[in-house]
Hints:
mainly alpha, Arc Repressor Mutant, subunit A, 5 helices, WH_DNA-bd_sf, WH-like_DNA-bd_sf, Transcriptional regulator
Amino acid sequence: MDAKDKVMSSEIKSKIVLTLKKEGKLSFKDIKDLVGISTDTLKLQLADLIADGVIKKCKGKYELTEIGEEIGELLLKRNY
C-alpha cells in the first residue's frame, strides 16, 4: 500500500492531511485541536505520515510535502 492509499483509507490521516492542506503549517497543538484526537493517537499518526513522506516537521510546525499536497488535492475533490 502506498502513501496515497494509506491516507485515503484512514479517516484520521485524511483529516490531518486535509487540515494541513486548508490551514497550512500548523503546530502539534493546533492539529490536535482542529482534528479533535488524543495526543497519543496524533503522535502515532504524524509519525506514520512523516515516515511515508506525506508531511514534514520544520521549526516545530508540520507541513505537507509535495506528495502530501497532491493527496490533499485529491481529498479536497473527494470532500466537495
